[in-house]
Design brief:
Bound molecules: pyridoxal-5'-phosphate
Strand order of the largest sheet: 2-10-9-8-5-3-4
Order of helices and strands: EHHEHEHEHEEEHEHEEHHHHEHEEEH
CATH architecture of the largest domain: 3-Layer(aba) Sandwich
Radius of gyration: 21 Å
Oligomer: single chain
Shape: globular
Structural class: alpha/beta
Number of strands: 14
Helix content: 40-55%
Mean pLDDT: 96
CATH class of the largest domain: Alpha Beta
C-alpha cells in the first residue's frame, strides 16, 4: 500500500484555508516531550501571540487541543450551568450549534433569530435581554461562515455587560481577518479556529477568557460536565511559565504549526493582514461584477474573508463547484441549510487571500459560466 499523497488543491472554501510552506515545515520538525522546558517555552510564546491576535491581556488565553467546535463547547460547558438562561443569536448555521450546546447542558436557550444573510438585530437582542432578567450569557457568532455576515460584536458585548450577562463570542472565522478586540469589547469568552484566517491546519481552537469569566467558572455550583474541557484542570497545564501538571498529551507538532502561523501574522502585522483581506475582497467583488455575479450580503455587513456569491438563475451550483475542483483544482464551498443550492461560499482567508488567487478563481468561474469579463 503506497503512502497517501494528497493532490495540490487551492483551498478557497469556508476553511480550511491554504497552509503556507513555512507552517508545513514547522509541522515536520522533531517531536519533543510536551513537558520539555523548551516546549513549555514555545507554549508561552504561543499564548503571548494569541493575546496579541485577540488584542487582550487576559492571562487565560491558550489553544484548546481540538477544533473550533471544542472551543465552542468549552465556552458553554464552563460558563453555563443547568437551569441557566442563555440568549443565543442565530443568523446562520453556527448559532444553531450554540443552541444545541445550551440545551445539552440542561440550560434554557432564549433564541433571537435573524434571516440567514443578515446581521444580528441589536434591538431584538436588547428586547430579549430586557424580557428575561437574570440571563447568564449572551452568545453570538461574530463572523457567520455559513452566510458571510459580520455582526456588531462591540455592541453585542456591551449589551451583555449592561444586563449583567457574560458574552460568548464565536470568532472562528474572524480571527486574523478582521479585528477581534477582546478587551475593548469587554468580551468574556472568545474562541476561534486554527484553519481559517490563521492558516494553520484544522485541529486547534485558540481561546481567551476574561477575569470575570474565570471567576464565574471558579464559582460554579456544579462540576463542569466535560472532564477534558474543564478549564480549571486545563489551566494546570497551560498556566504559569514554570512547572506543568500533566493533563493530556498536547498535539505537539500541531502546536509548532500554530506557533509558526502566529509568528507569520505578527511579522505581517494585524493591521496589514486586515487591509490585505479587505483589498483582496474588493478586487474579488469588482471581478464578480464584471462577470455579472453578485454577493448575497449587504455591503455594510460583508465579511472580506468569506464571500457568499449568489448562484445565477438556471445554473447548477454543484456542477460549477465540481468543475472548479476537477478541472481547475480550486475548492469552494456550497451553501448550508436554507442557502443550499443558492450560494457559493468563496473564502479568501489567511494565506488564501492574495491577488493571484482572486484572479485565478474569477477566471475559472468565468470559464465555467461561459461569461466574458465586461
Ligand atoms: N463556528 C464557526 C463560525 C465556524 O465557521 C466553524 C467551522 O467552520 C465552527 C464554529 C466549528 O469549527 P471546527 O470545524 O473547527 O470544529
Amino acid at each position: 500500500m503506497p503512502s497517501f499523497q494528497p493532490p495540490h488543491v487551492l483551498l478557497l472554501g469556508p476553511g480550511p484555508s491554504p497552509v503556507p510552506q513555512r507552517v508545513l515545515e514547522a509541522l515536520a520538525r522533531p517531536t519533543i516531550g510536551h513537558l520539555d522546558p523548551r516546549f513549555v517555552g514555545m507554549m508561552e510564546e504561543t499564548k503571548s501571540f494569541l493575546r496579541d491576535a485577540m488584542q487582550t491581556s487576559n492571562p487565560m488565553t491558550m489553544p484548546i487541543s481540538a477544533p473550533g467546535s471544542a472551543g465552542m463547547e468549552a465556552a458553554f460547558v464552563n460558563l453555563v450551568e443547568p437551569g441557566d438562561k442563555v440568549v443565543v443569536c442565530q443568523n446562520g448555521v453556527f448559532g444553531g450549534r450554540m443552541r444545541e450546546n445550551v440545551v445539552r447542558i440542561g440550560a434554557e436557550p432564549i433564541m433571537v433569530n435573524d434571516a440567514f444573510g443578515t446581521p444580528i438585530d441589536l434591538e431584538k437582542v436588547e428586547a430579549a435581554m430586557k424580557a428575561n432578567p437574570g440571563v447568564k450569557a449572551l452568545a453570538f457568532v461574530h463572523a457567520e461562515t455559513s452566510t458571510g455576515v459580520e455582526s456588531d460584536a462591540r455592541s453585542l458585548c456591551r449589551l451583555a455587560t449592561e444586563h449583567g450577562a457574560l458574552s460568548i463570542v464565536d470568532a472562528v472565522t474572524s480571527l486574523g481577518g478582521i479585528p477581534v478586540l477582546a478587551d475593548e469589547w469587554g468580551a468574556d469568552a472568545i474562541y476561534s479556529g486554527s484553519q481559517k484566517c490563521l492558516s494553520a491546519p484544522p485541529g486547534l481552537s485558540p481561546m481567551t477568557f476574561s477575569d470575570r469569566a474565570v471567576e464565574t467558572q471558579k464559582a460554579r455550583k456544579t462540576p463542569v460536565q466535560s472532564w477534558f474541557l474543564d478549564l480549571g484542570l486545563l489551566m494546570g497545564y497551560w498556566e504559569g511559565s514554570g512547572a506543568r501538571a500533566y493533563h493530556h498529551t498536547a498535539p505537539i507538532n500541531m502546536l509548532y504549526g500554530l506557533h509558526e502561523a502566529l509568528l507569520m501574522l505578527s511579522e505581517e502585522g494585524l493591521e496589514a493582514a486586515f487591509a490585505r483581506h479587505r483589498n483582496n475582497h474588493l478586487r474579488f467583488k469588482r471581478g464578480l461584477e464584471s462577470i455579472d455575479l453578485s454577493l448575497l450580503v449587504a455591503e455594510a455587513s460583508r465579511l472580506p474573508q468569506m464571500n457568499a456569491v449568489v448562484v445565477p438563475e438556471g445554473v447548477s451550483e454543484s456542477a460549477v463547484r465540481s468543475r472548479l475542483l476537477e478541472e481547475f483544482s480550486i475548492e469552494i464551498g456550497a451553501g448550508l441549510g436554507e442557502l443550499a443550492g443558492k450560494i457559493w461560499r468563496i473564502g479568501l482567508m489567511g494565506a488564501g487571500s492574495t491577488e493571484a488567487n482572486v484572479d485565478r478563481v474569477l477566471e475559472a468561474l468565468a470559464i465555467c459560466l461561459d461569461r466574458k469579463p465586461a
